[in-house]
Amino acid sequence: MFKTKNLEFKYFLKYEDIHILCEAVNFIKGPSGSGKSTLLKLLNRTEAFSAGDILYKDKLISEYESISLRKNVKLISQVPFLFSGTIKDNFKIFHEYCDYKVQLNDQIMNDYLSISEANLELNTCCDKLSGGEKQRVYIAICLSMESEVIMLDEPTSALDFVLAHKVLENIIQYIKTNHKTVIVISHDNTLIDKYAEHIIHLKGNIVHE
Amino acid sequence: MNNAVEISLINFLTIYLLLVIVGIIMKACKIKQTNLLFIASVRMTFQLVIAGYVLMYLLENPSPISIILYVLIMSLFAIHRILAINKGLNKQFKCIIALSIMTSSITIIMFFVMVVINQSIFNPQYTIPISGMILGNAMTGISLGVQAFTSKIKDSKLQIEVLLNQGATPKNILLPIVNTSIETALLPTINSMLGMGIVSLPGMMTGQILSGESPTTAILYQIAITICIASVVCLSVFLSLYLGYKTLYNKDNQFYI
């Protein structure tokens, strides 16, 4: 799905060449500062790389229009963000901001909420949610705007062991039935051992002048 | 009706007694900016004395060049004040703000003097005081609007990042912030319109009445200038932010913030 070649970020972070497999569960691990989150931002072009190249479906990512690339390669970042208002409002606001035209109804919203184990009433006010609940609602909303690739940055950092496994299991089942690709950054080796089909180990080659 | 009484210098100096009271209260309340009061008073006095003499000269020897020069200096000073308050803007944004305040102020000034009062734009008696009021208010308006915009952007960093990652265009993300900032800039002007004539007699009208003008003429001027102020604030903030927000990201829709 993705291939990188001599990729560098701001001339100090150098990546070994990476290969992301199509329709598979790809995990990225590595020490902090090894550029895991940055790699995901380079893949969806919210950050620019300083040298090298990234190929997406055998085409340079610079040849894709950046907004449509991001709609197809969705990054669910580590810290969740929700607008004030109900869960239902949030689905609508996000869809509107992203010009996502597919019709929404309560059934669809509930389906996505159950994928991320956020089985809450749609008219629950988001200001009252706990950190873990916010994260799961946020994941559900991001998943609801369908994309080919889903990139999750520490998706279960605010969740306990059981819930973390359950959420990831549901997401993997969802991407398998819908033939999508997933890239997950995680520190949790139990998750990696259980679900990874392909592991990318970043060592963090900091270039010294 | 009589013209305003000339104030004798000795009587005039008694007004500074009030400043001493303000200074004592500020000191007693341990307000840190007490020195600023002193500097501001001295500067105000000095600047106004100079302005008085310059205006006297301009009114006695009106020439297009000196009027253009005077208005230009006023606008440059207004631009300088705005940019001094709003540090950390990129160069392009700064240029846009400067151009916005220039074009919108000059348009409104010309409209007021040439169309509403039907005078030559080079008549210093009208152009110079009107320019001062228009530019001063545009300056406050833009400052408010730009400050609101930059502080909202700072507060919304997470929101911006999340929406960008979901494939929202920078335009969709930033326009709501632009719109609420324009509202912030306009509200004080609109609120002052609500109380005008009941709670307060505005400065321009007061001045005209003091100098012996009939109140019915004074209100016509006041209504016109108030509408001009609202328009110049709206126009200049609208132009600054609608053109300015586009300088915050590049053609690949990556943010600089």
Describe the model.
The complex is a heterodimer of chains A (209) and B (257). Chain A has helices at residues 36-43, 66-72, 87-97, 106-115, 131-144, 161-177, 189-195, and strands spanning 2-9, 13-14, 19-20, 25-29, 51-56, 59-60, 73-76, 149-153, 181-185, 198-201, 205-206. With 209 residues, chain A is an alpha/beta fold. Chain A has one domain: Rossmann fold (3-Layer(aba) Sandwich). In chain A, strands 1, 2, 3, 5, 6 and 11 form a six-stranded antiparallel beta sheet that branches. Chain A has a five-stranded parallel beta sheet with strand order 7-8-9-4-10, sandwiched between helices. In chain A, a hairpin with a 3-residue loop joins strand 1 and strand 2. Chain B has 257 residues and is mainly α. In chain B, helix 2 packs antiparallel against helix 3 (34-60), helix 4 (64-85) packs across helix 5 (91-116) and helix 6 (124-155) packs across helix 8. Chain B starts with 8 loop residues before the first helix and ends in a 13-residue tail after the last helix. Chain A binds chain B through residues 44-48, 66-68, 70-72, 74-77, 79-81, 83, 94, 97-99, 138, 142, 145, 147, and chain B through 158-159, 161-169, 172-173, 252-255.
Mean of residue pLDDT values of chain A: 90
> Which CATH class of chain A?
Alpha Beta
**Terminal Cα span of chain B:** 60 Å
- Using the coordinates shown, work out and report the CATH topology of chain A: Rossmann fold
| Principal-axes shape call of chain A | globular
Total domain units of chain A: 1
Biggest sheet architecture of chain B:
none
**Helix content range of chain A:** 25-40%
List the chains of the largest interface with their residue counts.
Answer: A-B, 27 and 17 residues
Evaluate the radius of gyration of chain B. 22 Å
Weakly predicted, low-confidence segments of chain B: none
- Residue fraction in strands of chain A: 15-25%
The whole-number mean of residue pLDDT values of chain B reads 91
Distance between the termini of chain A: 33 Å
Taking the sheet with the most strands of chain A, its summary is: 6 strands, antiparallel
How many domains make up the coordinates of chain B? Answer: 2
Helix content of chain B: over 70%
Secondary-structure-based class of chain A equals: alpha/beta
What is the ordering of alpha helices and beta strands of chain B? HHHHHHHHHH
